Amino acid sequence: MSDGKILAIDDEKNIRHLIRSEFGLEGFDVTTAGSGEEGLTKFNQDKYDVVFLDLKLPGMDGIETLRQLKRQSSSTEVIMITGHGEIGSAVTSMKLGARDYVTKPFKLDELLRLTRQVLQDRRSCAGDDRFRVGAVCRGDDKTIVCPSPAMTKIYSAVKRIAPTDTTVLIQGETGVGKDVLATQIHRSSARSKAPFIVLDCGVLNQNLAESELYGHRKGAFSGADDRKRGLVEKSHKGTLFLDEIGNIDLDLQKKFLRFLETGKFRRVGETEEVQVDARIILATNIDLYDAVRKGRLRKDLLYRMDVVSLPLPPLRQRREDIPALAAKMIELYSDGPNAVTIAPETMDILAAYHWPGNIRELRSVITKALIFAEGDVIRPDDLPRHLAHDQHGAGRPLKTLEEMEKKHIIAVLAETGGNQSKAAEILGINRKTLYKKIHKFKIFS
Ligand SMILES: Nc1ncnc2c1ncn2[C@@H]1O[C@H](COP(=O)(O)OP(=O)(O)OP(=O)(O)O)[C@@H](O)[C@H]1O
Ligand SMILES: [Mg+2]
């Protein structure tokens, strides 16, 4: 068995060859396509774990291809391959559901590490690749407690509601940690030893037949050789996590509403109702009220769902969490505590950036920085360049000339190992002037 099936869509032949040979050597099964159209055709013919998708393609471009891929299967993991100066589109693609991106020219190591990370994430919360079904979702050793007041409030709400059987609706932008929180609720409930079944409602529409959801009796349709329990039934005594509930097909909503209200449903081809005792957790990254206004979601279903709401704020609205998350991620992904540290200037950039991909994006930035960092400190240069030029961020307050001067002197002194003669020479000032400045800025005190 291969490590994973990859579909690489790129119009550059060399890149396709490179990916095929290198990822092949690493044990992956790689299929390539030279255009978006060809990629989609191949995607429809087989199942893939990860798609690498070039942003700039002749004909159908990367963004449109991504849209279509996601429409076919919203749980497909896509890593974008972008050129310099395409960061805006990279961010758009993350909003459309791409998992991450690499910038050309990229290091194969980086892409490999990212791919492994994506696959590991899927496996830890997943069973089948069409819908994530896990007996129990692992990975809580990597869950970091966020210290912001907003999140502290959420945690205390979780503590209160976890032991109850209330339906919970988790709302938040992509990457804020909705899956992580749903898992936490399940784990801290009395149902923790029972299954945690994850259903991606976006996938439900096209690929997942009603029989997969509710099961069927033997002979209900040709091919139904045995009686089969559906996913809903498998969550009996446990938790049913309905992810991307905003994408649920209109046709399915009525039956779903009945199930939410009564816990009852019918297997396909059977007349008798089955009762399931499942705790329901729902997640959405779209505004459900808006979906109702647009006619994509039944009003009665929304009212039934909106029982206890947990709105997870985007990372940019709880910047206090950024240093804590970043430091802990470094500890988790490097060789333990203090093996690598973050320079204060780097932290300034992380704290000011607007994080459209939220915690997922932060993690991706940190893992990349760990690859680029030389030595044991992450410096601003180790971050993707667009972070420092963030137009949307709160904007770091502009520094005074004196602050800049002080920073620069400190940097040069650090470089010369504290040798003031050398530092003065580099700075183009005489030793006496440097000495005065060191004194004035209290650099060594
Ligand atoms: N508290 C946390 N501690 C550590 N990592 C976290 C935490 N919350 C989120 N993450 C990281 O961010 C990633 C995204 O989290 P999660 O999948 O829960 O987000 P989501 O809100 O469900 O996103 P989407 O809307 O795209 O499904 C996770 O894979 C994990 O790496
Ligand atoms: Mg999610």
SSE arrangement:
Blueprint: E1 5-9, H1 13-25, E2 29-33, H2 36-45, E3 50-54, H3 62-72, E4 77-82, H4 87-95, E5 100-103, H5 108-124, E6 133-134, H6 149-161, E7 168-171, H7 178-187, E8 196-200, H8 201-206, H9 210-214, E9 215-216, E10 228-229, H10 231-234, E11 239-243, H11 250-262, E12 264-266, E13 273-275, E14 279-284, H12 288-293, H13 299-305, E15 308-311, H14 321-333, E16 341-342, H15 344-352, H16 358-372, E17 377-378, H17 401-415, H18 420-427, H19 431-440
Parallel strand pairs: 1-2, 1-3, 3-4, 4-5, 7-14, 7-15, 8-11, 11-14, 16-17
Antiparallel strand pairs: 6-8, 9-10, 12-13
Bound molecules: adenosine-5'-triphosphate and magnesium ion.
Magnesium ion binds at residues 178-179, 243, 283.
Give an account of the 3D structure.
Strand 1 (5-9), helix 1 and strand 2 (29-33) form a beta-alpha-beta unit. The protein is α/β, with parallel strands linked by helices and 445 residues long. The protein folds into 4 domains: 5-123, Response regulator (Rossmann fold), CATH 3.40.50.2300; 133-311, Rossmann fold (3-Layer(aba) Sandwich), CATH 3.40.50; 316-387, Helicase, Ruva Protein, domain 3, CATH 1.10.8.60; 401-440, Homeodomain-like (Arc Repressor Mutant, subunit A). The protein is globular, with a radius of gyration of 25 Å. It has helices at residues 13-25, 36-45, 62-72, 87-95, 108-124, 149-161, 178-187, 201-206, 210-214, 231-234, 250-262, 288-293, 299-305, 321-333, 344-352, 358-372, 401-415, 420-427, 431-440; strands spanning 5-9, 29-33, 50-54, 77-82, 100-103, 133-134, 168-171, 196-200, 215-216, 228-229, 239-243, 264-266, 273-275, 279-284, 308-311, 341-342, 377-378. The protein contains 19 helices and 17 strands. A 6-stranded mixed sheet has the order 6-8-11-14-7-15. Strands 2-1-3-4-5 form a 5-stranded parallel sheet, with helices on both faces. It has a two-stranded antiparallel sheet with strand order 9-10. The chain is 44% helix and 15% strand. Helix 2 (36-45) runs parallel beside helix 3 (62-72) and helix 17 (401-415) crosses helix 18. Residues 121, 142-144, 146, 172, 174-180, 285, 359-360, 363 line the site of adenosine-5'-triphosphate (ATP).
